[in-house]
Amino acid sequence: MTTLRLWALLRRRGRTDTHDPAGLTTVLAVVAFAVTTGMALVLLGGFLALLARSEAGAAIGSYDAGLYPILAGFAVLLLLVPLTTLGGAAARLAVSRRDARLAALRLAGATSGQVGTLAVLDAVAQAVVGAVLGVALYAALLPAVAQLRFQGRTFEIAELWVGAGPLALTVLAVVLIAAWSALLGLRRVVITPIGVAARTTPPGLRAMRLLAVVLALIALTVVQAVMKNAVGMLVLVFVVGVVAAGMATLNLVGPFVLGLVGRATAARARSAATLLAGRRLADDPRTAWRSVGGVALATFIAGATSIVALFDTTMASSPGDAIVLQDLKTGGLLTLAIAGVLAGVSTGVMQAGRVIDQRSAYRALALAGADTRVLDAARGRETVIPLVAAVGTATVTMLMFMVPLLGAGMWLQPAVLLQFVGAVAAAVACVLLGAAAARGVAHRMLASGA
């Protein structure tokens, strides 16, 4: 009860905090949770609709009855990582805004359990509100999603409605992800409260992360050997495993690469804005990667789905085959669109969260005479530099994993290259829009005296 009363007190104080007058952190976290829940329900609704159609098709002997749920499940697995990443980012944002206050409570005598409970309560409260709004977002998107054509016809809204049970389970999953991510993000507050309160620079990343690439390549060689004798569903399982391993490797190596890029940028900087951007990247590459990790995953997904550009419906041997090929194209583009939206929202949330978390540093620079245009330029380069590095790293990782499976000639086809470049450009545009939204947050922080 003491912890609950303390949490309620902190919530009341937070609403009157002049350093965060609009509760921007809470708003950002709620938006992230809402988008996560809404997109997850849209994906689940589409998968269940195609599964129901598959069962109906199997009853009448349709030859492609089982194909659509498999492909839909593959798309869901591809998007599961960016969805989970966005939900985790929202939970970490809830903790990072209050880490100094929680560290002070820890130093004042609060137990680790009390500090952890306070953090989880904050994250869970925001997750519940965001999940409820996400359900509303899902309901609002249903009429638009129903216009998509699969198997030669559009959907009925009733087909895409998941029902009360899956709704409740999805909301519960979002809340659990928020609670778990909050606990993980709070480890440094519980273990080293003095370091958190003093804003000590976190330890650097080790080159051991590159070992993941070596291990992944060894595993890929083994998979290639096994796939020569694999047939049917086993091939798809191997492909899904390779894609999952590729995205996991990308998330491990990405922050290390950004750390190297940050140090190189700072060492070669010829302007104050570039120096600030480089130093911030080098000091905290993990957070920088979270800001652009969405577009890195979208780039990887774009590479994995760009092969659908080779499917030409005019070359189909039957009307049924033409429908399947067109549906493969539609599904690939839909997967890319969702990945791009998730990347943009993730970047906007993380960039704005970083501005709020670093508001004292921005204010100190402004009081010291730094021009607002210099600070804006630094934030811009703090987005563009890791963005370019993330796209490059994701492209190399994608080719490293996909070329051995499908051959290098696949990615030399003009149609595949055009779709890949167009998809990456669209994802980058979403990310830049999200980053631009953080600029208004920064100006508001400076104007309010934060």
Briefly, what is this?
The chain has 450 residues and is mainly α. It has 17 helices and two strands. It has a two-stranded antiparallel sheet with strand order 1-2.
Relative helix content: over 70%
Oligomer: single chain
SSE string = HHHHHEEHHHHHHHHHHHH
Number of domains: 2
- Which regions contain 5 or more consecutive residues with pLDDT less than 50? none
Query: How confident is the prediction overall: mean pLDDT?
Result: 75
Q: How many strand units?
A: 2
Q: Give the number of helices.
A: 17
Strand order in the sheet with the most strands: 1-2
Strand fraction band?
Answer: under 5%
| Structural Rg | 23 Å
- Going by helix content, strand content and strand pairing, the class is mainly alpha
The gross shape turns out to be globular
Largest sheet, if any? 2 strands, antiparallel
Keywords: Membrane, Transmembrane, Transmembrane helix
Transmembrane segments: 21-50, 70-95, 115-140, 160-186, 207-227, 233-261, 288-311, 331-350, 387-411, 417-438
Organism: Miniimonas arenae
Protein name: FtsX-like permease family protein
What does the model show?
The chain is mainly alpha-helical and 450 residues long. The chain has 2 domains: 200 residues, no CATH class; 247 residues, no CATH class. Helices cover 80% and strands 1% of the residues. The longest helix has 39 residues. It is globular. The model has no long low-confidence stretch (mean pLDDT 75).
